[in-house]
Write a structure and sequence with these properties.
- By secondary structure, the chain is of the alpha+beta class.
- It has one domain (about 30-245).
- The protein has helices at about 1-25, 35-45, 55, 60-65, 65-85, 90-105, 135-150, 160-175, 205-215, 220-250; strands spanning about 110-120, 125-135, 180, 185-195, 195-200.
- Strands 1, 2, 3, 4 and 5 form a five-stranded antiparallel beta sheet that branches.
- It has ten helices and five strands.
- Helix 7 packs antiparallel against helix 8.
């Protein structure tokens, strides 16, 4: 009897051990945090096909909606251009958007520098190194070229349409040939594994948004807006001073 009980106990331990091993085994659809991060960025930013996205991510429909952020930032180029050139046509705006999309795909890149695993919390902190389009440089260069053209012939300031035409031409040139900039700040995003599927929780929306905006624009929107406003004000102030000096000499 004792021998039988001992055998039964051994079998129970064996079953428990086997169950534990099965619980740690990944499903055939589960991917690593690094793979998940790459698949997510490729889909959301670069619009690459991800046929297994629904298998790899929890609540994929909600995550896919974040791809709208990329569209918003790309369309930001059109809004910025329109802010400087109000008479921009719809066709011109659409050409800007298509040009930015093309350059985003061809010129920008990201690198996953590290993945720090927290197995207890089922979380992985992914650190990104980013090289994005440099919208700030494009606008600054366009404004500088516009300002210099005006200063060379200050009487152009009497013709508002001509001034706007020069600015339109200069911004178009820079937007069609955007430079890139490597961000001096590495972005960290936490991916959470829930029963084999990955989740980007609500508190990670801002870090992920920073990744997207840095690739599309070169830096987060708030800093960019402040910088461009200062650049525009400085250019206008220099032109106004030149106008005042010209008038004083007449």
């Amino acid at each position: 009897m004792k021998k039988k009980l001992g055998l039964l106990s051994s079998l129970i331990v064996l079953v428990i051990m086997m169950a534990g091993c099965a619980g740690n085994k990944k499903s055939k659809d589960e991917i690593s945090a690094k793979q998940a991060a790459r698949e997510y960025i490729d889909y959301v930013v670069y619009n690459k096909e991800a046929k297994d996205f629904d298998k790899h991510f929890e609540n994929p429909k909600k995550l896919k909606e974040l791809s709208d952020s990329t569209t918003v930032y790309i369309e930001g180029y059109k809004r910025t251009f329109n802010g400087f050139v109000p008479e921009m046509t719809e066709d011109e705006g659409n050409k800007i958007i298509e040009s930015v999309k093309k350059q985003l795909a061809e010129k920008t890149k990201y690198e996953i520098v590290s993945v720090k695993e927290d197995e207890k919390e089922h979380k992985s902190t992914v650190t990104f190194k980013l090289t994005g389009l440099n919208e700030e440089d494009a606008v600054k260069t366009g404004l500088t070229n516009w300002k210099n053209a005006i200063l060379q012939d200050i009487e152009i300031t009497t013709d508002r349409a001509k001034m706007n035409g020069i600015l339109k031409d200069e911004l178009t040139k820079t937007y069609e040939n955007l430079s890139t900039i490597e961000s001096n700040k590495q972005e960290k995003v936490v991916f959470t594994n829930m029963a084999g599927k990955w989740v980007i929780e609500i508190d990670q929306s801002e870090p992920m948004d920073n990744v997207i905006s840095t690739l599309v624009q070169g830096e987060p929107t708030k800093e960019l807006s402040t910088s461009l406003t200062k650049e525009n004000d400085a250019a206008v102030a220099e032109i106004n001073k030149a106008v005042a000096d010209y008038n004083a000499q007449q």
